[in-house]
Amino acid sequence: MKLYNLVVIGEPEVGKTSLISSFISDYSIKCYKSELVSGLQTCIVKINTDIEIKVQIYDMTTNDRSILLTNQHLPSAHGIIIVYDITNDQTFNSCKNITKKLISCINSNRNMMIVGNKLDKNDVRKVERASAELFAQQNSCIFNESSAVTGEGVKEVFEEIVFSIYKDWDRIFDRPKTNYYFALALTVIICAVVIIWFV
Ligand SMILES: Nc1nc2c(ncn2[C@@H]2O[C@H](COP(=O)(O)OP(=O)(O)OP(=O)(O)O)[C@@H](O)[C@H]2O)c(=O)[nH]1
Ligand SMILES: [Mg+2]
């Protein structure tokens, strides 16, 4: 079974822990908390109804000032979810800074998603969906809005990033295997040409 590492990152109080808890309690087939690393949860997620994927989710509190501090979970992350609070535009500014810093300091092949949380407080929204969506699009990130309170959009957040990693896995993470098959095919063709030449 494949293991995907996800990091959920964002300003304090935007709802990262609530988002992860909401997803895990409603959706995953099986889940277990790490007793060794705090903030780390592992669960089994099903995509396409029949493919089971083990997902390790690391809940990382940060702000744009501390993002550059080396974190052991970021280099091994296959997907990064950057969360802001739709009722707090300062958290969206921080989300933009975090996204830019991540793009510049880690491998850009990583799947990234921007999530506007607290959608249930739409009546006091400060960050327009369209502007956040545009920023995400300009930075090649997936975009979603969610509410950890009502559960709206939560399943989609995790499903979409897991599916995106799944689609990209061979291209990004199994490249050596692809090269191996290419070398094998080339060797077979060369052998065939040599045999035909001598026969
Ligand atoms: N209305 C509303 N409140 C939410 C939502 N998600 C989280 N909250 C509330 O926001 C507060 C912070 O939620 P947390 O999940 O602890 O936020 P966090 O990002 O993990 O915060 P830190 O661990 O401090 O970084 C709590 O009071 C939650 O109940 C949401 O979708 N809607
Ligand atoms: Mg938290």
TrEMBL record:
CDD domains xrefs? Rab
Q: Where are the transmembrane segments?
A: 180-198
Gene3D superfamilies found in the cross-reference section: P-loop containing nucleotide triphosphate hydrolases
Taxonomically, the superkingdom here is: Eukaryota
- Alphabetic keyword roster: Membrane, Transmembrane, Transmembrane helix
Q: Which InterPro entries match?
A: P-loop_NTPase, Rab_GTPases_membrane_traffic, Small_GTP-bd, Small_GTPase
Q: Which PROSITE patterns match?
A: RAB, RAS
In Pfam terms, one family for this protein is: Ras
Which PANTHER family does the UniProt record give? DRAB11-RELATED
Similarity comment: Belongs to the small GTPase superfamily. Rab family.
**What NCBIfam families does the record point to?**
small_GTP
What this protein is called in its record is Uncharacterized protein
